[in-house]
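Q&A log
Question type: sequence-to-structure
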Amino acid sequence: MKDDRQFEEHVAGGGTLDSPVHMPQDCREELVKLMTGFADSQLAAAAGLARVLNEGPSLRERMALARIVYEKIQIAETVLEIASTFGADISRYAAYHAWDSRVDRDADLPPARREGDRRLAVFHFPIANWTDGLVMHHLMSQVTLVQLEEYAHVCYEPLGTALRGLIPVETRHAMLAREGIAHELARGHRDMVQAALDYWWPKAGASFGARRSAKYRELRRMGLRRRPNETLLKDWTTLMRAYLDRMHLDPPMSV
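Response status: OK
Response body:
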């Protein structure tokens, strides 16, 4: 690209790039933020789920969760390898980081990302028990699927290709969570499932960001977004409301 305007015209028409060399600096920086934030969230999610692994009611259910934990770490590695081609320093991921660190469950935590740990705010809160973890994981798997559908069309084709390849993996994670919740309901744990829904729903929904976001408009200009935050939230809410109806669960009070 000769200049930023030519780049914007290219991506506005659906064009993509195979190399970061010709991207404007601000676009490269936002892509690195996107990738490191996604990887941090996957690693923090894996660490949180691992803490309740041994609470699984059966060996088969523990194995299913162990596979999810492994694949989340693998997903983070895949995305970080792409980030490294932008010159991102990913050496910190080889050292210890407290991905299992959590705040109090009733903490008032702002949704903004934190420097050095760009996980989504929802992954700063602790999982209370096995049932709580299943519900949180299902809600966030659906969040991730909606976000993957959005970011799979970024202007940087290698990242878009990688994210499209992750959709079947995350779809399987959501399916395993649904199966686990169904087992919990069959065991008579409906009140625990409902309590977890009430707790995690607003935190999961906040992962889509602010409505009428100026940041969204900036990312759209760079070819990194297509649909606004409120549309993504609406898509997720529709999916989850349909699930609640099928399972005869009550919508959380925040809906």
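Response note: The helical segments are 4-12, 25-50, 59-84, 130-151, 157-186, 190-205, 214-221, 229-247.
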